[in-house]
């Protein structure tokens, strides 16, 4: 779905809070129209500050931000109309029903009554049977889905999901991703922050990682995964082992049971063949080999640690 047109452009964005805390430091990013973009980082890295600047809730200290071509300083209203944000915190009015909440939200965005999609959004979020129940009676997962519906009332071309599946069970998580994938297939630009790295790995075409207010990575997901240099292999040998073998090409060796060795090595220095040859040179016969491909968590941890 991605195109070369830009949905969000951020240049030299900085934010220093009262007291001197530097939350963002020279962040530059581009999100293309139609892209499924992941924004990752440890707690306190600056992700929420960045999203709150996009939402118009936090004032930036310096830099430039454009949303759908609208500068947030020069055209704040048009910028806000172009983006829907699902916040990390569960925020709701306990005295309104889900349908009333969506109608009020649509009214705040100036959506005419005839063009409102409250019932359609409730159906998409599996909330039709709760349309007229008080919001305070909804479960945590239902409240989170209501937040997604509220973010979509004005049909924004960009949807930002800030930890959308926190506290949501597996079934509801799958339903939520089914709906978001459908929106994406229809052309919506989706920006996701999540602590579930397997979600980002599966869903996002491009991922940026922020640490200490700076961008430490920003590239296609496949390219980012290729950065992982550590590989793990579990080798079963043909006899019991009293101690782990040592070799310069092993970064780490752990004995798992009497005949299995969990070996970590760096693929930029040696290959799997050399690892197995080292074991055979010690007189060990290879019975079975299981490799583990590096995942996004491996890359994330290595980048965050090095930063």
From TrEMBL:
Which residue range or ranges hold the ABC transporter domain?
A: 8-237
Q: Which InterPro entries match?
A: AAA+_ATPase, ABC_transporter-like_ATP-bd, ABC_transporter-like_CS, ABC_transporter_ATP-binding, P-loop_NTPase
Q: What are the GO MF terms of this UniProt record?
A: ATP binding
**Which controlled-vocabulary keywords does the entry list?**
ATP-binding, Nucleotide-binding, Transport
SUPFAM superfamilies in UniProt: P-loop containing nucleoside triphosphate hydrolases (SSF52540)
Q: Name one Pfam family in it.
A: ABC_tran
What name has this protein been given in UniProt? Multidrug ABC transporter ATP-binding protein
């Amino acid at each position: 779905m991605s195109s070369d047109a830009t949905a969000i452009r951020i240049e030299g964005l900085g934010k220093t809070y009262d007291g001197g805390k530097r939350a963002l430091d020279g962040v530059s990013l581009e999100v293309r129209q139609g892209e499924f973009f992941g924004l990752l980082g440890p707690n306190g890295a600056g992700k929420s500050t960045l999203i709150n600047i996009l939402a118009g809730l936090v004032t930036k200290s310096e830099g430039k931000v454009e949303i759908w071509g609208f500068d947030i300083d020069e055209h704040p209203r048009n910028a806000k109309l172009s983006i829907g944000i699902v916040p990390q915190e569960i925020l709701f009015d306990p005295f309104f029903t889900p349908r009333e909440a969506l109608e009020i939200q649509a009214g705040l965005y100036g959506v005419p009554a005839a063009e409102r999609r409250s019932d359609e959004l409730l159906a998409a979020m599996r909330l039709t049977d709760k349309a007229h129940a008080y919001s305070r009676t909804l479960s945590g997962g239902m409240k989170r889905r209501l937040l997604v519906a509220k973010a979509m009332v004005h049909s924004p071309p960009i949807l930002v999901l800030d930890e959308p599946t926190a506290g949501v069970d597996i079934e509801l998580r799958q339903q939520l991703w089914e709906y978001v994938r459908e929106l994406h297939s229809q052309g919506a630009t989706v920006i996701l922050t999540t602590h579930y790295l397997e979600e980002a790995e599966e869903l996002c075409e491009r991922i940026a990682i922020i640490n200490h207010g700076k961008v430490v990575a920003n590239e296609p997901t496949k390219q980012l995964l290729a950065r992982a240099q550590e590989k793990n292999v579990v080798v079963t040998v043909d006899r019991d082992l009293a101690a782990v073998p040592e070799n310069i090409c092993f970064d780490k060796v752990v004995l798992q049971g009497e005949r299995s060795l969990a070996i970590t090595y760096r693929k930029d220095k040696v290959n799997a063949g050399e690892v197995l040859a080292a074991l055979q040179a010690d007189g060990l016969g290879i019975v079975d080999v299981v490799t583990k491909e590096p995942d996004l968590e491996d890359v994330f941890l290595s980048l965050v640690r090095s930063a």
